[in-house]
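Fold sample X.
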Amino acid sequence: MTLTVTGLFTIVAIGLGIWFKKDSSFRKREFIAVSVFWILVVATPWGATAVAKVQDVIGTGAKTASDTVNSVSNK
């Protein structure tokens, strides 16, 4: 399983949307500021390195879980 940058960005955007929707005290300026921050983080070289690390961790976790399920179901 490979998580693309677009997929990771979508997951973060959905999480932020849910968080801001549940918090009745948020302001639209805060939402815009946080959204722009995440866009800049993902669009910079440092952000790309961080995204690669997250992809590696999630991919490794998904592979381990899949291997565990397969080994248990084969018994």
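Fold sample Y, listed below.
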Amino acid sequence: MKKNNQEFYKTWRLGFKYVLIVMLAVTAFRTLVSFMTGNGDSITLSSILLGILFLVVGTGLLTLFIAWYSTRGK
């Protein structure tokens, strides 16, 4: 592998890990607040799993663009 590719993958993994942790924490907090205020009646397991799927895919794409942008000129 080229050095640029190695740097890209390293940047992507690092960014993905931290952005995913933050996004999962925000989602968990939002879900907790929904249950505490009584608006959690409509939350189902399938909606939670679909939300997590969107979260992971979206975070992956976001960090892909961030890693690409940060390593494109090197």
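Sample Y note: DSSP finds two helices and no strands in the chain.
Also: The first helix runs from residue 3 to 36.
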